[in-house]
Amino acid sequence: MTPEQNKTIHRAISTFGGRNQTMQTIEELMELQHALFENVHRGTDNRQNIVEEVSDVEIMLAQIKQIYGIKEDEISKIKDYKLGRLNTTIDKFVAKQKVASQQKAIQIDRITSNGLA
Theoretical Cys-Cys bridge with 28: which of 38, 56, 72, 112, CB 3.0 to 4.6 Å? Predict the structure, then answer.
């Protein structure tokens, strides 16, 4: 964030209080959840709404970081760990899909070679 944006973040917390801004964060998260739900579940074309809600959530997360004294290096370390874990999960999923695809190909080959298809 720019220095001016950080100043506004600080002013919001000073003016409205940490508790109120934490509650506002919860509200913004719910609005993003609703926008995503509308898009995925109902097929609504609401990309612009999603962009606005992501912006709101990012602003509120900047306030949460300040309210709770969360440093970027703390977040970065946890992100690195969780992204590494996600990479492992993706690798396992891809390997499982590859095996399933190979097994399906073998089944089709057996059916075809036995004259059953």
Answer: 56
